[in-house]
Amino acid sequence: MKNLKLHSYWRSSASWRARIALHWKGLPFEYRAVHLLQDGGQQFQPAYRALNPMARLPTLEWTEADGQTRKLSESLAILEYLEERVPSPALLPTDAYLRAKARMLAEMVNSGMQPLQNTSVTLRIKNELKADEKAWAAHWNVHGLTSLEAAVQETAGRYCVGDAVSFADVLLVPQLYGARRFGVDLKPYPTLLRIEAACNELPAFQAAQPDRQPDAQPA
Ligand SMILES: O=C(O)/C=C\C(=O)CC(=O)CC(=O)O
Fold it and tell me: Which residue ranges does the record assign to the GST C-terminal domain (predicted)?
């Protein structure tokens, strides 16, 4: 994989997952900023939609040794692909059950939480339904984090699944940032907070943080 380009937005949690995985695997990439709110949402522009018909972030583009260009969207598909292409350092355990557990915890965020509070959803709740989109988003974060705190008890070591970083941690850290943005009290999730702190000691997690990205906006 050469000439990697990641279409990303600094605080898009799905972009953040891909950034962690790329840094973890030691794959340098060019950062292509797509602003989710400016210009009515740059993700809706035809050039980006041609890359990603869902008009969502992230999208990864690269070139193979034989010159073929490739593109992939959906952060979990990107994580799975990078894990296959660059197995070491790993982001999945070797034991099949624990691998499934890491994917299960990741899916609890990927399918069970984030889509319910995605910007495309919260904007419709606010503008079409005239409802409190922050309360809506906070509700689904509380439901998901309560479930995750319970679920990780079986496998947690230093990280979500034992003492090695996995997809579960890659999904957890950006989601906690989102939960804070929606005003969720995180005190009921001590295990998740402890894992987040452990992850944030790692250079790949540090490099992927929103405020370290070229399109970050001052608070
Ligand atoms: O407010 C903005 O700056 C625009 C959009 C986002 O950050 C995207 C999200 O926070 C959704 C998410 O990835 O969970």
Answer: 95-218
Global ipTM: 0.93
CA–centroid distance, 162 to ligand 1, in Å, is 30
Q: Is the C-beta atom of 118 inside 6 A of ligand 1? A: yes
Pocket test for ligand 1, best of 36, 43, 173, 175 (most atoms within 8 A of CB): 36
Q: DSSP per residue over the chain, as a string?
A: -EEEEEEE-TT-HHHHHHHHHHHHTT---EEEE--SSGGG-GGGSHHHHHH-TT--S-EEEEE-TTS-EEEEESHHHHHHHHHHHS-SS-SS-SSHHHHHHHHHHHHHHHTTTGGGG-HHHHHHHHHTS---HHHHHHHHHHHHHHHHHHHGGGTBSSSSSBTS--HHHHHHHHHHHHHHHTT---TT-HHHHHHHHHHTTSHHHHHTSGGGSTT----
Lookup: tokens for 68: 């073929």
Separation CA 194–CA 105 (nearest Å): 16
Tokens representing residue 175 in the block: 């989601």
